[in-house]
Amino acid sequence: MKNYLISLMIVFTLSACASLPPLQEMSNARQTIAAAKEMNSSAEQSQKIQEAERLLSRAERRMEVNLYESARQDALRAQKEAIEFIEWAISQSADKKVDD
Predict the structure, then answer these.
(1) Which residue among 48, 53, 54, 55 is buried most deeply as judged by most CB within 10 Å?
(2) Is-contact 33 53, C-beta < 8 A?
(3) Mean pLDDT taken over the chain
(4) How far apart are CA 71 and CA 65, in angstroms?
(5) Phi, psi at residue 21, to the nearest 5°?
(6) pLDDT category, 50, cuts 50, 70, 90?
(7) How far is CA 50 from CA 1, 46, 99, in A?
(8) Terminal Cα distance for the chain, rounded
């Protein structure tokens, strides 16, 4: 009986963690998008940044209706798109310095 109760407590704890709003993921995505825009003036026109903003907006809508796992995945994807843009911008900057 004791093992059953411990198992049950673990399941409840894990499920509670999974159902928490993805506040940190949303914040990380926002900060990464902002960093990309600050770093490169063409970020606003970038398809990657536009996609990141679209995903972040969708994540916000999903959070409003308590679809936390879907919102979490969208926020993570938004951050990934912004990171890929930053990596691209850095490589372009490095290539430009080599040419100079």
Answers:
(1) 55
(2) yes
(3) 86
(4) 10
(5) -60, 145
(6) very high
(7) 54, 6, 29
(8) 73
Sign of CA dihedral 54, 24, 41, 98: negative
63, 89 in Cβ contact below 8 A? no
Rounded CA-CA distance 38/8 in Å is 48
* Position 17 pLDDT exceeds 60: no
Residue range 51-73: mean pLDDT, rounded: 97
**CA dist., res. 24 & res. 35, Å (int):** 16
Q: How far apart are alpha carbons 68 and 23 in whole angstroms? A: 10
Structure tokens at 28: 């990380």
- Alpha helical stretches, state H, 1-100: 2-18, 23-39, 47-64, 68-99
